[in-house]
Amino acid sequence: MLTEDDEDYFTEPGFHLPGTPISVQKLPSQSSLPMEPLGNHDSEAGSPPKEKSGVQQQEWILERMEGDSRPMKELPLTLSEKRRIRERQQLRMRKISGWNSWKDSQHRAARRFRERTTEVFQYTEMWRGSLHRIEGHFGSGVQSYFSFLRFLVLINFVTFLLIGGFIAIPNMVFEELQLKINSTRPVIAENQTCLLDYNPIHQGLVQFYEYVMDLLSGTGYMELTYLFYGFYENTAVDLNSFSYNIPLAYLITTLFYFLLSLVWTVIRSVNRFKQSLVNEDSSLSNYSQKVFVGWDFCISEEHSVRLRQNSLRYELKMDLEEEALKRRQAARTKLQRARVYILRAIVHLLVLALLLAAFYAIYVATGYSQQLISQDLVSNNFFLGLLVQYLPSIVITAATTILPIFFNVFSRLEKYSLTWEIKLTLIRCVFLRLASLVILLYSLWTQITCNGQKDEPDCKTCGYNKTYPCWETRLGQEMYKLAIFDFLTVLIVILLVDFPRKMIVQHCSCKLIQLWGQQEFQVPSNVLDLIYGQTVCWIGTFFCPLLPLLNTVKYFIIFYLKKMTLLKNCCPAKRTFRASSSNFFFLLVLLFGLALSWVPILYSIFTMTPSKACGPFQGQSFIWDTIPNAIEPLPQVTKEFLYFIGSQAFLVPIFLFLCILISYLVALANSYGQLVKELKVYVQLEGRDKYFLVKQIKEMSEANENRHKADHGEGTWAHLITNPF
Amino acid sequence: MGAAGSQLSKELLSEYQELTFLTKQEILLAYKKFGELLPKEERSRVLSVRIPKAKILTLPELKANPFQHRICHVFSTSEYQDDSMSFEDFLDMLSVFSDSATPEVKSHYAFRIFDFDEDGALDTHDLEKLVNCLTGEAEGTKLSESEMNQLIQNILEESDIDKDGTINLSEFQHVISRSPDFVSSFKIVL
């Protein structure tokens, strides 16, 4: 439609493009970066390169890019172009002063150093290859599960290092060297009953199965290892220039690793949080994101590509359907709407009833298990004993596997939109998981403190139930069992469910079984499992200091197990899991788990009487007393300063100040949101203006063209676009 | 420049490191892989030979990719428009798709890959082709016409900020900037 002559006009920088309608968006103001850097990749193949205009355009781009202060690699140009720009820059560099060029070279060297260090770090990154491989098969959504797992391994390992370095090893060394200089235990004048009963080692002949049982439940000989709270000493070593107070170290390390986990997780989630803030209304760009970002370029398997295409198509179709559904919903009559609301209410009640039933079962099971453990009938029978020991874990695991199935079924009845459906099920599952831990702890608390009544006969003498001579260790054992059982379930599920399922599906062509199909790797439920395990670990760490080590090993093994079952047994999920959308949600749940684990620990630090028969805090009335005791011998000024920091006079103003800061920042964020909205409107107006102008140009040019035709008989409006007046 | 042996010269290597997002190991790996695509007699001239498109597409990383033709086309600097690739084109491609490339560079090239008719804007035809690549182009896997129209209309409604009926680079980058997954998914690693 255009003649050869006309193309010259179009290949000039601003108006490069052939084709109608007039490309409004190619006006120079609109393009932030040049689109066609080198050569003219015209769609009509075979046309020879256009010498003159190509070179002109290139020069124009190079000039524009030269002044760019970004590092060369960040320019969207080809290598040879970058090389030319660099040559030009170097030429110019020679002209400018020595100081500037020195500064520039310094700048460059620093950048290169940074790059090299990150390169080294990348090299040492754990499981990099595995993550790449998983990404190639299943996309970045599943990969996010594995990087989350890696994060947990790291955090557990660092916690273990802290505990090992500051608590376990010093304790070990002092014991070896017989350095028990002074015990911080005060002389106990009260009755000795609380001290006497504690002797966990089995009396008499020990049978082999008891060893196994002790190993699995942390009793007997296991109880007297560094694994548990009760084994640590309340010693303080005070050589002439070196003093080390184990209880103080124990307490401060605990507080410190909690703080560290908090900061680490927060830092990790801040980035995501920023993104989700920017995403303020992600529903508004839902389709564009799916289409523009939907393709995972990492996927390289032909089979996976097909699966990915299927899942994308499925997703797009579902979204379109959902939209239609919403429109239909809006058109619902009052009666229909009332019916849906009633249905929802019923479902909510059902879910609530199920949750309460589960919680009651956990509560009762924990109570039973605590009462039955000490009975002879139970402790003499291996399987019965094991069953009783693991009763709470079994009930919790059963509840958390069975109830989600019901939740899934229910959520379909509720007629929410699909995304809401998934979210709601997820929220219910999270609540179930974390709340069941709370119930377990509450059940233990009622046992240990006689329901919080210190006047009960069992609790009167010691301040806690005297059937628990070392209650901290008992708590640690419960968490230890939960962690072990969690690991065992993963193992059993993989061996007895995933593998056979794959086998059956592969070798049996029966229709029903094919319909059942291969297993899908469900990222959300798997991540929830991890978060649950981590919360158990955090709760248990104070009472069972080596639990982080166990957890590190556990997650390390789980990584390989999950990777194996993923690559061997699973097929990609039908509905793909977007890495970021829920990543933040998971970190939020993790933070929630962390906060949850603070509660029992702070509670026992500040209000419970530490057991008098064992542990680093024996003999004190509260665990927290360690800190004031440690501050006591300090010089007057330091002491007063520390007391001031801990007093209301300091904390209340700080609290108020933080509140003010938060409200200020919230206001700021809101105003930015407002600004964004206004700017959007502004851009729209601009666009309309531009459209109007171009339309006018077109009209004028057409009018001109007609006149032109009348004059010369031949001509196109194109001349007038570049030169309308 | 033209290193005669099978090894890259040190200066060239450091230059590539400066001009691309690739690390030393990645460049050497790319060099090896590129050499393997060449017939035996040409292996000594890796830096000056162009590999035809058909050969490039045998790479496992590109073989199954539905955007393979677009990728070749965008990164090829061939004068004859035959989408053949030189080693430097190849490096350019890997650099853009590497882990450490900035979102700006990535989104710029993503836009060019998705701009099928290369007019500097994504119009309805580009979007249709793009969606077909995503869902598979066969008759059975395509979206139906009404679905496609609805989808494209939705996309334009969401992303076409200035309401001119097409999505230009800055609008595209705006959408991308709000999608944190982009950097991790717009990635090809050898």
Automatic annotation (TrEMBL), chain A:
One of its GO terms (molecular function) is mechanosensitive monoatomic ion channel activity. InterPro entries: TMC, TMC_dom. It is a multi-pass membrane protein. Keywords: Membrane, Transmembrane, Transmembrane helix. Belongs to the TMC family. This is Transmembrane channel-like protein. Residues 470-580 form the TMC domain. It holds the Pfam family TMC. Residues 39-53 have a biased composition (Basic and acidic residues). It is found in: Membrane. Residues 1-57 are annotated as: Disordered. GO terms for cellular component: plasma membrane. The chain crosses the membrane at residues 148-169, 248-267, 341-363, 383-410, 422-445, 584-606, 641-667. Residues 1-10 have a biased composition (Acidic residues). Residues 22-33 have a biased composition (Polar residues).
UniProtKB/TrEMBL annotation, chain B:
GO terms for molecular function: calcium ion binding; magnesium ion binding. Residues 102-137, 147-182 form the EF-hand domain. PANTHER family: CALCIUM AND INTEGRIN BINDING FAMILY MEMBER 1, CALCIUM AND INTEGRIN BINDING FAMILY MEMBER 2. One of its GO terms (biological process) is integrin-mediated signaling pathway. Coiled coil: none annotated. The gene is CIB1. This is Calcium and integrin-binding protein 1. Keywords: Calcium, Integrin, Magnesium, Metal-binding, Repeat. The lineage of its organism: Eukaryota, Metazoa, Chordata, Craniata, Vertebrata. It comes from the Eukaryota. Pfam families: EF-hand_7 (PF13499). It comes from Geotrypetes seraphini (Gaboon caecilian).
